[in-house]
Design goal:
heterodimer; A: mainly beta; 7-stranded mixed β-sheet; 4-stranded antiparallel β-sheet; B: mainly beta; 6-stranded mixed β-sheet
Chain lengths: 112, 112
């Protein structure tokens, strides 16, 4: 049963702590993405990776970091430098050519 | 700078009638367009796409129209059903197909 998994569904952290969000896909897709969604806003691109060991910043990369050591995994770390980390985070993948993106179920991060 | 815009935050339609969701874009390099449907606290799911070589694409009750000269696309849902109530995002990508730009979404409510 192919798809994208994100864990956990809900995550709570104290301000000043780094937190890593998991994203795994078994679709054999080359490209993976991290988006952030805030109320009343669209999906904003944080980072994307087109191939293992390579990734590019999106529009709002400040305060975030990623790694792509394996094709199926693209974890996102929200660092303490991110000023407004509370949001809904979505991971996506696509085959690397034209085609729709497949999204995971999302992680709701709350930082207090 | 928002390159993909959905100017109607919400839309209400009676069951059985047509729903028309609109999307405008500013980047003339975009040549692949997609519509996604999203329920709260879930990831978006792909609905339908269109490439710039076409001006219309149909899939069951869903039809997407593309007007390249106006940089405008629309999604028609006929007939609308209560289960169509969700937030709809349009998205666009350029020739590489590797980075997608999303609108802010339109919340559709289909009234039984």
């Amino acid at each position: 049963d192919g798809g994208i998994t994100q864990s956990p569904k809900y995550l709570f952290r104290k301000e000043g702590q780094n937190v890593t969000l998991s994203c795994e896909q078994n679709l054999n897709h080359d490209a993976m993405y991290w988006y952030r969604q805030d109320p009343g806003q669209g999906l904003r691109l944080i980072y994307y990776s087109q191939i293992v060991n390579d990734f590019q910043k999106g529009d709002i990369a400040e305060g975030y970091s990623v790694s792509r050591e394996k094709k199926e995994s693209f974890p996102l770390t929200v660092t303490s430098a991110q000023k407004n980390p509370t949001a809904f985070y979505l991971c996506a993948s696509n085959p690397g050519t034209y085609g729709e993106q497949y999204f995971g179920p999302g992680t709701r991060l709350t930082v207090t | 700078d928002q390159q993909v815009k959905q100017n109607s935050p919400s839309l209400s339609v009676q069951e059985g009638r047509i729903s028309i969701l609109n999307c405008d874009y500013t980047n003339s390099m975009f040549d692949y367009f997609l519509w996604y449907k999203k329920y709260p606290a879930e990831g978006p799911t792909f609905l339908i796409s269109i490439s710039s070589i076409k001006d219309k694409n149909e899939d069951g009750r869903f039809t997407v129209f593309l007007n390249k000269s106006a940089k405008h696309l629309s999604l028609h849902i006929v007939p609308s059903q209560p289960g169509d109530s969700a937030v709809y995002f349009c998205a666009a990508s350029g020739r590489t197909g590797n980075q997608f730009y999303f609108g802010t979404g339109t919340s559709l409510t289909v009234i039984p």
